[in-house]
Design a protein that fits this description.
The protein is mostly helical and 111 residues long. The chain has a domain at 34-83. It contains five helices and two strands. A two-stranded antiparallel ribbon has the order 1-2. Strand 1 and strand 2 (108-110) form a beta hairpin. Helix 3 packs antiparallel against helix 4 (59-78).
Length: 111
Amino acid sequence: MGVDLKNSGEINDRVPETQRTMCDWAEKTFGPVHDPKALLTRALLEMDELGQAIDDGDVAEIGKEAADVMILLYRLVDQFGLELDKEVRAKMAINRSRKWVSKGDGTGAHV
């Protein structure tokens, strides 16, 4: 009998993760979201953990914590019937049409 990779927790590159698969897994694992703000609060906690991983220079942990943030953001926007990838594409179209000024630290602001 083979291993059911969908439920084993193992990485399976043949089954791509999507917003739907992540949200379905989270719903099954943690139950329904009663207050979307709880997802935001958890994402902010994961951002703090990401910051700590950056401070520590722990590349493997940086990847894991960044992924945790993204998973929570997928689930958060799903609560409002939005698709995060679609929202990112739309926002990038806006960003590409704006004029920007560099702050010199790898970030910037639109003018």
